Amino acid sequence: MWKEPKWDKGDIVNINDELKKIKGDLSDEEACLWLGKFLLYNIQFTTEILLGIKLHPRQAVLMKSWFHSNYSLAIWGRGAGKSTLIGFWLVLYSLFNPNSHSLIVSQNFRSSRRILEGLEKLAKAGDGGGALFQQCLDGDLSRRNDIFKYTFLNGSTITAVPLSGGDGLRGLRASCLVIDEAVLLSLNIIETILKPFLVSGGNIKKKLQLRELEDRMIKKGILKEEDREVFGSTSKMILLSSASYQWEDLYKIYQQYNKNVDENTEEDLKVASYSITQISYKAVPEDLLDKAIIKDVESGGISQNIVDREYGAIFVSDSSGYFSAKKMALCSVPDGQRPTIELVGEKGAEYVLGIDISLSSGEDSDNFAMSVLKIIDKPTDPSKKIGMLVHSYAIAGGAHKDHIAYLYYLLNNFNIVYIGVDASQGDNEFTTQANESKLFKDAGIELRDIVADFNKTDQSEVIGQVRESYNSQAKRIVHKQGFGGPWQKMANEYLQACIDFKNVIFAGKAAAVDGLGEQMAKNRPWILDNHTDFKADPDNNKQGESPLSFIEIQDYLVESTKRECALIEVTGTQTGGQHFDLPTSMKRSKSKTRQRKDSYSSFLLANWCLRTYIDMQSMPVEEVETSFTPFAIGG
Description:
Blueprint: E1 2-3, H1 15-20, H2 28-41, H3 43-51, H4 57-68, E2 71-76, H5 82-96, E3 101-106, H6 109-123, H7 131-135, E4 142-144, E5 147-151, E6 157-160, H8 166-170, E7 176-180, H9 187-194, H10 204-219, E8 236-241, H11 249-263, H12 266-271, E9 274-279, H13 291-298, H14 304-311, H15 325-330, E10 351-356, E11 367-378, E12 381-396, H16 400-413, E13 416-422, H17 430-436, H18 438-443, E14 448-449, H19 459-469, E15 476-481, H20 485-500, E16 504-506, H21 516-520, H22 547-567, E17 569-572, E18 578-581, H23 584-588, H24 598-618
Parallel strand pairs: 2-8, 2-9, 3-6, 3-7, 7-8, 10-13, 12-16, 13-15, 14-15
Antiparallel strand pairs: 1-9, 4-5, 5-6, 10-11, 11-12, 17-18
Helix pairs in contact: 4-5, 5-6, 16-17, 19-24, 20-24, 22-24
């Protein structure tokens, strides 16, 4: 779907035809002006000679639409290439608008800076593809922990920044704002933090002079008040996203844009114009769409609900999986409110950790995932203890030493009183490997297993065994749980009940609380300099994560956990049991960016272990009666 205002746009000028009519020689200035008009009018040609990229005609038309509107909403299905195309457009916008400043923001700094990293690959292709583009740049891509920036010779810039930049972020100004994955940002963040980045368009001095002239003419009766010049906005804001649920903020934005397009008068449009593009995977040319996506959608292994939202760019009422996305949203701390995610645990608080093991080191493997639940009083019933997801970890592949380093970081920064470890792949001895590491030995940390039969279906018996074996002082706090059929059913039913009755909470986004990101970032987490995925690697031109981007990662992972849960479907097994997993076709994908479920699994395990720990704590202590009856030893 393509939706834009309907008003008399006058005759559309064909620049190519106009150029053919010109006779004789052009001055240097005229030649430059006509070249600029020609290149802007012929987007496909310009993109090919500048970036070495051949655009499909549909892509060229979509890019042109962003030039024509002040506010653009792009709701595109998975695989439609919105992030790639916006990168190309930003280059053209920067060149055609000297001294312009474009800002890219996303929920996750990794996502926003990835757009600039994609442009960097084009500039350094070495095959002539991006040679002309590179000549337009004033140096290489500038990389810092909290900012990635391209500067052009004409004074324009393209900048990617972390959302959690606090007061430093508020000082930024831009003529063009791009918000990637807008579904992950609340309306409040967009309206109160991001939209104010946009500066007033045009020359302020010239506008003031015109207003003074108009004032004098009105005073003399030469001009009427309603005839004043209307200064239209030259700023741009482009929101990119897949579709969302109808109760999420993105749908409210979608509705407002529709209203603006339908109801704005021609006078309104002189101030600011709106447009919407809604593109299903079916509208993407076959030669541009990943064949795996077509196979996934047409295999019948994905529910229609997911096909509509993820691929069809259609807003849906709720998830069709085992866990309700809407109910999980009701269990979430609203944006801008506390409590939020944590990088360091609260003094005196207790935490439960769930670990989903991945033995593979390949980038296309499952995630090695950890979920940290903080034990809190239920807001509506202080007598009841519940869990709040405050910290997460999810890395595809990776070395065991890095996973061990993260476990070490968690143990040193959170008072973890109970640990659940996935034992479905056999006794992989992850905690034993951790105990034998230099980190753990130097710190004198040794984790021990709780002795209990966790496969029993009688939970009162399991709780009794845990009570007898558990010893926090001796660090006998490790619960090794197999993910067998009976346990899966019990754990998922319990998690569903916790979500239904708000007995589990998802922490709020730290980046959404004014000033909190900067406050939390004052102390650099140890893990950022001791984990391959986070620390800098100068030899490979890899920038390390800053504390601010690490905060964004945590905000993103909590949100990602909910979205993984919403995808889980339950199917029957041949033995009459139940199986909880992603849709079949999603599991078949071997892509590095494929959908995973490991944050869900570690969260499921943590929630179950929290129940075990609380039940163990509340179990009455059995008093063993002893008596002694004296007797005589005869002789």
